[in-house]
Design brief:
Jelly Rolls; alpha+beta; globular; 237 residues; 9 strands; single chain
Length: 237
Amino acid sequence: MAAKLPLVVSFGLGLSFASPALAGSVANGAPAPPPQKGVNIASGAKAPATDEPVARLQMSSDLLAFGRDSKDPLALIVAARIMKAVGGTDVDMKPEGRGDSSQKSGQAVTPDSILVEARDLAKGDKLTNLLIDEAGAMGFDGSAGQPKTHQDTALAGATEVYTVVYSGGQLAEAGLAGDGSSDLDLLVYDENDHLVCRSASSSDREYCQWWPRWTGSFRIEIQNLGTAANLYRLTTN
């Protein structure tokens, strides 16, 4: 463990993210604007966004998956630090067409729950536990305007569908992180049923980024391609 400590710790202790200034999605409960014609995605290249909060949370999800697979508590510590630095709020988004039944199960992934896993993997190592204590003492911004995360379970072979209104001219992000039990894909369609983004790797961690031309509704689909249920987190900016 000591051999790989300097590299990971230097990254973890150097985190300093500004709070996201752009909110790509409209506040929950806001009425959807009237539909327009065409494809709701800006043409041409856009300058990189100064704030990509969902992309940063996806980095945290990748580190969490790596840390669990390799049993590396240092990767989990950095994952928790990123989540705390970016901030975020938990929201309750009901998938379309499910009815009143709920599929939610399992423990929600939070910075504190990740640090509990890291402490178990540390096996009493004093320096690692010191880093865990330091990460636990970090503040966490859960104010409005931060990335919004919903946790739910996609059954084997099922497709979960959500509708989110994104603001025109602003960066739009959607991130997906599963529990590792099956392959998940992420697809985004505009209000006119045009596919504006598809993220379909062989894992259950996917990310989409686009720039809407106008404020409008987007359909986010989560497809479970595996034979096991998957507890996932959907995050939007």
